[in-house]
Amino acid sequence: MSNYLVEFNNISKFFGKVIALKDVTMKLKKGEIMCLLGDNGAGKSTLIKTLSGVHKPDEGEIIVEGKKTIFASPKDALDMGIATVYQDLALVSLMSVTRNFFMGREPQKGLPGLKTFDIDKANEIASERMGQIGIDVRDPSQAVGTMSGGERQCLAISRAIYFGAKVLILDEPTSALGVHQASVVLKYIVKAASQGLGVILITHNVHHAYPVGNRFTVLNRGKSLGTYSKKDISREKLLSMMAGGEELSKLEVELKEMDRISKI
Amino acid sequence: MSIKSKSIETKKKISKDERLKRISRFRILLNRPELGALGGSILVFIFFGLVAGDTGMFSAYGMMNFLEVSANLGIIAIAAAMLMIGGEFDLSIGSMIGFAGICIAIPAIYWGWPLWMSIIFAFSMAVLVGYFNGILVVRTGLPSFIVTLAMLFILRGATLAITRLITGRTQVPGLRVLIENDPIAWIFAADTFKWLFTWLGSMGLIALRQDGTPLATGVPASVLWWIGLTILATWILMKTRYGNWIFASGGDKHGARNVGVPVDRVKIGLFIGTAVASTIFACVQVLDAGSADTMRGTLKELEAIAAAVVGGCLLTGGYGSAIGAAFGALIFGTVSMGIFYTDVDTDWFKVFLGGMMLIAVIFNNYIRRKVTENK
């Protein structure tokens, strides 16, 4: 039995002639936050979809809790406890907090054949769960549209955890958020990991990833540039590894040069 | 452990923050989709109470009149509302009414089927048409507006062509004699609560005919269908898992699909719902008139959608109520009949209908903005 929750070994994915992913390897332990960093077009979206069962990898293997598996569908991945929270969050803003929380998995009561949606129990659970994250929903029948972006993100994560996620794949959870909201979401992610979940945090924002991540994988043009523990790599190094890093340092040199010239 | 203590700090901060943003009771009330239609109904009744209070509009006979018209519209409006909440339209409702009427009349008159069998036949055809509409929308991904617009023409044309082919004309009369002794026709045709009206008549509380029977003989079956369907639809929407799936499918079908809602199945079910409701409408009308006409139900789909919109349904789906649609139908039914009791020319009814719908859409749009953009 391996001590990894989930392993993705040498994953490759091709779309016709395009090599979207080549030999990407990621391993995730319990309670660990693994950050997947990459600029736009680095292959993050393809990788997420492969990890969550939307795409089937063309090469490589997926091992969940020591067992080699193939995800036939996103539902398959979900059944094995690998839950993905996409950027759109799968929340309906016109629906209430409770109805969103239990969307597709409503608790029922009553006789078989005449079951009703147990809205009281659902309200209670939704309030309790949101309370645990520090979001006070006094009225769980309020529409999700009235919540802030950070609260919505937390709701989506909280829902995934409630429904038995062991591995959380979070797609850019902080990209649309302000500084304060982003820190609330990041704290919640740390808390979730401290309770024993494995988290794969996908982002292009090193400043959000570095404080919370345990290990970092950098993706560039469909290939992994390696995985590093936090102690082995600095924030600046990570930043420069992502595509655009060299360009930024070049820009710095050029600016210095301009500065020098103007002084003369 | 510093993280934990920090997170407790934020907890307090957030909950305080939330309290500032709490929505007012007024807005919670405004958020109920049926509010507009309920208010509108009250206004309409106040208006006719003042203008036509002493004309007999609110006698038992007058009331049964406008309630029956409201009920007929209500039956299809409720189904249209559920479909709209599920994010789709059905423009073939009116054509389905004509088609269903012919499905009842031709087998019963020309093929010698017992009436109950032709009624069951009509409902089976409705399920097929609804399923076909649904599967076409779901599989092709085309807007339901276009798909069901095509179906509007196809069904109406087929109704006309088939009827003329079999009967040589466009109307099929002669059903009245078949209604008596039929085991199920009474579900759609019978007046109910006759005993109550007879008793009220004998007490001198409602108007009587020359022979002593009350002028209003009972509550038309369609009124009970209207009330029953409103209760059923509201129960489904608010109290069942399927109801949650309807809101989710209409609100955001991709999101709903991602969390495991069987969006396609939900939508197909709702299309079957509108076709079946159209058939209930057709049964009531055909059995009441004793004849079927190929042009029955023309433009009814638009009236049903108008009633649903006045009832608070958003055209973009995901929001609305069956109770609202029932009240929307009540408004239209009351005005369309009530206008006869006033000095206003009946030609103005459609102006009212359009104006009412416009106000409702503007109001609904405002509500939606309040609900979704209040961050």
State the shape of chain A: globular
Distance between the termini of chain A: 67 Å
Low-confidence stretches of chain A: none
Main beta-sheet strand count, sense and barrel state of chain B:
2 strands, antiparallel
Strand line-up of the largest beta sheet of chain A: 6-9-10-3-11-12
Strand content of chain A: 25-35%
Widest sheet, order of strands of chain B: 1-4
Average pLDDT of chain A: 86
Please give a structural write-up.
The complex is a heterodimer of chains A (264) and B (375). By secondary structure, chain A is an alpha/beta fold. Chain A is 36% helix and 25% strand. A 6-stranded mixed sheet of chain A has the order 6-9-10-3-11-12, sandwiched between helices. A 4-stranded antiparallel sheet of chain A has the order 2-1-4-5, with helices on one face. In chain A, α5 (149-162) runs parallel beside α6 (179-194). Chain B has helices at 2-20, 25-30, 35-52, 60-85, 93-110, 115-140, 144-167, 176-179, 186-189, 194-202, 221-239, 241-251, 253-258, 263-289, 300-310, 322-338, 349-372; strands at 171-172, 191-192, 219-220, 292-293. The two termini of chain B are 32 Å apart. The model of chain B is unreliable at 1-21 (pLDDT under 50). Chains A and B meet through α2, β8 and α6 of A and α1, α12, α13 and α17 of B.
Brief overview:
The complex is a heterodimer of chains A (264) and B (375). By secondary structure, chain A is α/β, with parallel strands linked by helices.
Top keywords for this entry?
heterodimer, A: 264 residues, alpha/beta, Rossmann fold, 2 domains, 6-stranded mixed sheet, 4-stranded antiparallel sheet, 9 helices, 12 strands, globular, B: 375 residues, mainly alpha, ABC transporter involved in vitamin B12 uptake, BtuC, two-stranded antiparallel ribbon, 17 helices, 4 strands, 72% helix, 2% strand, disordered N terminus
Task: Describe the secondary-structure layout.
The complex is a heterodimer of chains A (264) and B (375).
Chain A: E1 6-15, E2 18-28, E3 33-37, H1 44-51, E4 59-64, E5 67-69, H2 74-79, E6 82-85, H3 97-101, E7 108-109, E8 116-117, H4 119-132, H5 149-162, E9 167-171, H6 179-194, E10 198-203, H7 206-212, E11 215-220, E12 223-229, H8 235-241, H9 245-263
Parallel strand pairs in A: 3-10, 3-11, 6-9, 9-10
Antiparallel strand pairs in A: 1-2, 1-4, 4-5, 7-8, 11-12
Chain B: H1 2-20, H2 25-30, H3 35-52, H4 60-85, H5 93-110, H6 115-140, H7 144-167, E1 171-172, H8 176-179, H9 186-189, E2 191-192, H10 194-202, E3 219-220, H11 221-239, H12 241-251, H13 253-258, H14 263-289, E4 292-293, H15 300-310, H16 322-338, H17 349-372
Antiparallel strand pairs in B: 1-4, 2-3
Helix pairs in contact in B: 3-16, 4-11, 4-12, 4-14, 4-15, 4-16, 5-6, 5-7, 5-14, 6-7, 6-14, 11-12, 12-14, 15-16, 15-17
